[in-house]
């Protein structure tokens, strides 16, 4: 079977929009932990004029390079990145000594003043390596990689969580824990 990569990107974006930000737009209700039955999602997408086959859904979940979605049994959810209130029920974990964040030059003045803020999302997203942070930062222009002293943050009482796809989450990164490039 030939996989239409453009179609899978469209399905992934559709899922992100409705599993992370606007489930009510297509008439689905996420449970408190962000899960929705796969059958409900597929029926809602079909009724909304964007039919998704079970095979396409499986391809998007399995093939997404960022592992944005998780299927457990007969239900699905986004791994992280929600702008709506969900409890991903992630245990607090000790982070590695350093984590990374990709951004662009235009964001640096605000980051220097206020640190990294979660903005419209539930958490600040941090990468485990510079390569991932570079890809994230490049979505908005020429990437600048910030190094986060996550070990010191954790020792200072800041909570960290790791999503199913390896993204590190925290509520706020104060500027004192950020190493800016020269």
Automatic annotation (TrEMBL):
Keyword Transferase: yes
EC number: 2.7.1.-
Protein's GO biological process: tRNA splicing, via endonucleolytic cleavage and ligation
Pfam family, one: PTS_2-RNA
Stored Gene3D superfamilies: 3.20.170.30, RNA 2'-phosphotransferase, Tpt1/KptA family, N-terminal domain (1.10.10.970)
InterPro entries: Ptrans_KptA/Tpt1, RNA_2'-PTrans_C, RNA_2'-PTrans_KptA, RNA_2'-PTrans_N
Gene Ontology MF terms: NAD+ poly-ADP-ribosyltransferase activity; tRNA 2'-phosphotransferase activity
Keyword vocabulary terms for this entry: NAD, Transferase
Alphabetized PANTHER family for the sequence: PUTATIVE PHOSPHOTRANSFERASE, TRNA 2'-PHOSPHOTRANSFERASE 1
Cited function: Removes the 2'-phosphate from RNA via an intermediate in which the phosphate is ADP-ribosylated by NAD followed by a presumed transesterification to release the RNA and generate ADP-ribose 1''-2''-cyclic phosphate (APPR>P). May function as an ADP-ribosylase.
Similarity comment text for this entry: Belongs to the KptA/TPT1 family.
Identification of the protein by name: Probable RNA 2'-phosphotransferase
Species per Swiss-Prot/TrEMBL record: Acrocarpospora phusangensis
Gene: kptA
């Amino acid at each position: 079977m030939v996989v239409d990569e453009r179609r899978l990107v469209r399905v992934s974006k559709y899922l992100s929009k409705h599993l992370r930000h606007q489930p009510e737009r297509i008439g689905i209700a996420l449970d408190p932990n962000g899960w929705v039955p796969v059958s409900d999602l597929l029926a809602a997408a079909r009724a909304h004029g964007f039919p998704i086959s079970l095979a396409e859904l499986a391809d998007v979940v399995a093939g997404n390079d960022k592992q944005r979605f998780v299927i457990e049994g007969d239900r699905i959810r986004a791994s992280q990145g929600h702008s709506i209130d969900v409890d991903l029920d992630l245990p607090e974990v000790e982070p590695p000594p350093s984590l990374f964040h990709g951004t662009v030059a235009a964001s640096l003045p605000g980051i220097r003043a206020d640190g990294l803020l979660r903005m419209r999302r539930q958490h600040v997203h941090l990468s485990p390596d510079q390569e991932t942070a570079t890809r994230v930062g490049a979505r908005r222009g020429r990437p600048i990689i910030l190094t986060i002293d996550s070990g010191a943050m954790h020792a200072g009482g800041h909570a960290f969580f790791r999503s199913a796809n390896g993204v590190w989450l925290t509520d706020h990164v104060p500027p004192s824990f950020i190493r800016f490039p020269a």
